């Protein structure tokens, strides 16, 4: 069966945002990034099921007939804890019964890292705690946040640390407020090399900021023009939590220390 195309079926939006909006989780990626990652992992095609009340009300049998049978599957692969259909009434056993004589069903054991199950909720908890290094183990890559660079307060340039600022949509997850070491990559230039960065996540409390942003200082680069450019920010290590400073001098001193710490974490030598 190795010659068969791999078709991935995924829901959008997250079912909980429809069923229990008050409990909707922060998303680890937007839909475009999810599709890109699935294709990078080997998917030949990604089918997006628009999740709404109608889909939520389908019985397991109706779900199979509507979304799986049209794909003419030979084998359906799901996680061993897979649930589907109205009120999650279907599981792997039910799926196998519905597919009998039409397709095989394989329930895969859940992936683990250091005996801990890898799942989106666990990764969200790690990000909320600022533990981007542990999150990367479960993601098998650094956590990435992407967006288009917007004009910020431009204080960073005045302080000698110009930053590329990304707004944080309310539905997307980011690491806990604080300062991190990581990489910034331009997405408008194919093959662009990642650039070492000191990254701040938060509201800039020293200046009574209100907007939640990801602000990246590309180390020793003051020549970059990134406004309006889509970039990716990959988080490697947490350096410290968010701090409110009494004045600019204390902030500048700390930012210098942050840059040195970021270089150490990333294993790079500064261009001085």
Helix content range: 25-40%
Low-pLDDT stretches? none
Structural Rg:
22 Å
- Mean pLDDT, to the nearest integer, reads 94
> Which sequence of SSEs, written as H and E, runs from N to C?
EHHEHHEHEEEHHEHEEEEEH
Strand order of the largest sheet: 7-12-9-10-11-8
Pairing-aware structural class of the strands and helices?
alpha+beta
Shape: elongated
What can be said about the biggest beta sheet? 6 strands, antiparallel
| End-to-end gap | 56 Å
Strand content: 25-35%
- The number of helical segments is 9
Describe it for me?
- This protein has 272 residues and is α+β, with helices and mostly antiparallel strands.
- The chain is 28% helix and 26% strand.
- The protein is built from 9 helices and 12 strands.
- The protein has helices at 15-19, 31-40, 53-56, 60-68, 92-99, 120-128, 132-139, 155-159, 248-266; strands at residues 7-12, 45-50, 75-79, 104-108, 112-113, 116-117, 143-148, 164-167, 178-186, 195-202, 213-218, 230-241.
- Strands 7-12-9-10-11-8 form a 6-stranded antiparallel beta sheet. Strands 1-2 form a two-stranded parallel ribbon.
- Helix 5 (92-99) links the parallel strand 3 (75-79) and strand 4 (104-108).
- Helix 6 (120-128) packs antiparallel against helix 7 (132-139).
- The termini are far apart.
